[in-house]
Amino acid sequence: MKIVSLVTTGLFAVLSTAGFIALLSTVGLLIVLSAAAAADLPRKEPPPPAPPVGKAPIGKYPLANIRLANTHSPS
Fold first, then answer.
1. 62: in domain
2. What is the pTM of this model?
3. Any residues with CB less than 8 A from the CB of 23 and at least 6 apart, and which?
4. Burial 21-48, CB ≥16 within 10 A → b, else e
């Protein structure tokens, strides 16, 4: 811990207040830019589900096998 306090005291002594603020701003800017760059990386998406085999499409029904009753009476 003694070396840490010695280094920080030396850093504060060398840098003025404006220089220290500029250093903190630069570090903060680099952190924000690296997070934004990581958010823009492409992610692998799962493949779409396979369609069901042997089933009729939704909304379609094979009408060829249906016998409709005669609803009209002869006139």
1. no
2. 0.39
3. 15
4. eeeeeeeeeeeeeeeeeeeeeeeeeeee
pLDDT in tens, 6-53: 888 877 777 677 778 888 999 999 999 999 988 888 888 888 887 767
Q: How far is CA 31 from CA 40, 41, 48, 56, in A?
A: 15, 16, 36, 54
- The contacts of residue 62 (CB under 8 Å, 6+ apart) are 56
Whether residue 62 contacts residue 56, with contact meaning beta carbons closer than 8 Å, is answered with yes
Tokens read off for 22:
């500029």
Domain that holds residue 9: 1-39
